[in-house]
Amino acid sequence: MRPRTWVLLLAALFALMQLGTVEGRDTPDSKNYVSYALSLTGVDKREAAAVAIDHYCAGKAAMAHRAQNVDVVRFHAPDPAPRVLQECREQEWRQVEARLAAGETGGQTVPFMPERFMRIFEVRPGYPLVLAPFVALFGVTWGVWAAGVVITCAGGLFAYLVLRTLAAPVPLTLTGMALYLVLPCGTTAMRPMTEGLMLALTLAALWGCALVLGGTRPRAGLVLVGGALIALFTVKHSQALFLGACLAAAGGAVVAGRRWRGMPAGRGPVALAAVGCAGVFGTVLVARLLGYPSVSESVQDLLTGHFARPDREEPWAEFFQLQGNFWMEWARRQLWEPVFLAALAAGAVGAVGARRRPAFGAFLVAAACTGFLNQAGHPDINIWGDRLITLAWLLPVLGVPLLLEPVLRRAVVPAQGASVEPVG
To answer: Rounded CA gap, 336 and 82, in Å?
Structure first.
């Protein structure tokens, strides 16, 4: 079969597997994005609140039902789903009704939380814009599910295209797509949150890097990187800032390394570094002009439990103390179960050790570092399955196939007609 047929088969298989869990993927923040998407379809605040609350609470009820089914003591007890559904609805409506009565009706989101906290979601229209047509066509339950499948498969497709542009053999390009779908990237991307789009757009930027460094379509690659940074700004502007900074750092490192070895710097890394710097300055400037929540506001949100407590007088001192505590505990847990660290190591060896594409390896490592920066901005050890650091999994998604490439090329004579010119 042709590679595109295998890509479609992988996507179809992934979609079929996701039918096992249509409900119950939500986090507490998911209802903010769902209500935003409903508002974009023309639904008023009260109806958006009703639909978003019903969807969120139905997910909690489904999870409670599944949990009791496998509880060795209570599996034969009455189904808890109706009780959980009712309690969840009452709790959510109690908060929403009070805020609507107080006049908190501005913006696109339903006031599930204090207005100061909801401002964080008001400046993230990217995911709701993608979600809105799915919700309008299929309803909330199936629309959220379908959007998750499309977003996740798009990320897998970008992983395939990056490896294809790097002239990796077809079996390894498909391996990269499969790894994206089965590793935590796929699991996290299926949640009704921004991470799925962040992963896909970061991979789109990496595809642009591969095009630029390969020299085949440098202009298209630069446009792709710039477009990905702009789109990331609408999804979560801090991620656009992190990715721009990391791409600029990678470009600078490649240029410095080449000059240290007496080699020409090359236009590709310089151009990518310039685009990264433009992304950083553009993000900071536009966010300030639009009055987006500042970094200090984000720190206060973290330390006050979403503004449920008074602002901290010395937030940065407490924040950095929490950083030290967090990373010590994080390292302890990773050493206890070092699957993630092993995957990162394998991916790094594959990315940086690839002799024909060392420059791209630097940009891949830089993109993966945005996962650590994202996690560092929210040093919470219990934040829904390590979803904030998921971007770091892009390193093994692309690096492991590159690590396996020499083995495959020694075992099979390449006969697929793909270019094997150096990339970077």
So the answer is: 39
